[in-house]
Write a structure and sequence with these properties.
The chain is an alpha/beta fold. It is built from 10 helices and 12 strands. The protein has 2 domains: about 10-105 and about 255-284, Leucine Dehydrogenase, chain A, domain 1 (Rossmann fold), CATH 3.40.50; about 110-250, NAD(P)-binding Rossmann-like Domain (Rossmann fold), CATH 3.40.50.720. A hairpin with a 2-residue loop joins strand 5 (about 95) and strand 6. Helix 1 crosses helix 9 (about 250-265), helix 4 crosses helix 5 (about 130-145) and helix 4 crosses helix 9. The longest helix is centred in the C-terminal third of the chain and has 16 residues, at about 250-265. It starts with 7 loop residues before the first strand and ends with a helix. InterPro entries: Aminoacid_DH-like_N_sf, NAD(P)-bd_dom_sf, SDH_C, Shikimate_DH, Shikimate_DH-bd_N, Shikimate_DH_fam. It catalyses: shikimate + NADP(+) = 3-dehydroshikimate + NADPH + H(+). Its EC number is 1.1.1.25.
């Protein structure tokens, strides 16, 4: 990579962020597409967020990505929001269009792009969890024409989740069904009718636990996805594959949300297959 007076910067902003693999993904893409850019990781305090956003204009950057805890906090400093960012209430990509800062959320798009030969339009989905990743998947599914969504959260989180789903219904007219994860018979019923089952919780990162009981049986052809990619195969994915179901981990979501951001910044397509190769070697 040749850095010169014309090199434009992009960065990921979060805390903590030093272990991020986003610099690897984006710098590989800059190089592969002969784009004069460099991508760095900025670990900042909340008190520096306003200045950090101002620097996007000041240094004529491509833009920034945001991760925890700044995806919501960045919104007041932006000029515009895309449809999905408004629905999700969180931004993971800021694009600098000649000094006009536009917030996008590419997580949901990235997630659906990572599912092999699957479109959500007209399909039924069961979603486990209601955190940031779940919200981006939910909102994108509604924008893409999903026919029915069942969200399962632990009963202690029901009251916290409901206001967001009500707001979503107000904005889109789409009613999401909410259930308690402990209600195994309803979980089984909903999964039996679904085309897609997604774990959007962090359960399974320890390599031991699973968000659903092993007694649940999966319908044939149901696609199972986990947003976790470390471990590469979670107990949840192992369980799905044992039943003969196709199963996908979260590495593709990470790559394709980055590809969406890269395209918004540069107008170029990220060479995802090439980068996917090196990513799987790194994490498998």
């Amino acid at each position: 990579m040749k850095l010169d007076g014309y090199t434009r910067l992009a960065a990921v902003v979060a805390n903590p962020i030093k272990h991020s693999i986003s610099p690897f993904i984006h710098n590989s893409a800059f190089e592969a597409t002969a784009t004069n850019g460099a991508y760095v990781a900025w670990e900042i305090e909340a008190s520096d967020l306003a200045d950090t956003v101002a620097n996007i204009r000041r240094y004529q950057m491509f833009g920034i990505n945001l991760s925890m805890p700044y995806k919501e906090q960045v919104i007041p400093y932006l000029d515009e929001l895309s449809d999905e960012a408004r629905l999700i209430g969180a931004v993971n990509t800021v694009v600098n269009e000649n000094g006009n800062l536009i917030g996008y959320n590419t997580d949901g798009k990235g997630f659906f792009k990572s599912l092999p030969s699957f479109t959500i339009s007209g399909k039924k989905m069961t979603l486990l969890g209601a955190g940031g990743a779940a919200k981006s998947i939910l909102a994108q599914a509604i924008l893409d024409g999903v026919s029915q969504i069942s969200v399962f959260v632990r009963s202690v989180s029901m009251e916290k989740t409901r206001p967001y789903l009500d707001k979503l219904q107000e904005q889109t007219g789409f009613k999401v069904d909410l259930y308690a994860l402990e209600d195994v018979s309803v979980l089984q019923e909903r999964i039996a009718e679904s085309d897609l089952l997604v774990n959007a919780t962090s359960v399974g990162m320890d390599g031991q636990s699973s968000p659903v009981p092993e007694s649940i049986s999966l319908p044939e052809n149901l696609l199972v996805a986990d947003i976790i990619y470390q471990p590469f195969e979670t107990p949840f994915l192992k369980w799905a594959r044992r039943q003969g179901n196709p199963a996908v981990n979260g590495l593709g979501m990470l790559l394709y949300q980055a590809a969406e951001a890269f395209q918004l910044w540069t107008g170029k397509e990220m060479p995802t297959e090439e980068i996917w190769q090196s990513l799987t070697e790194k994490y498998q």
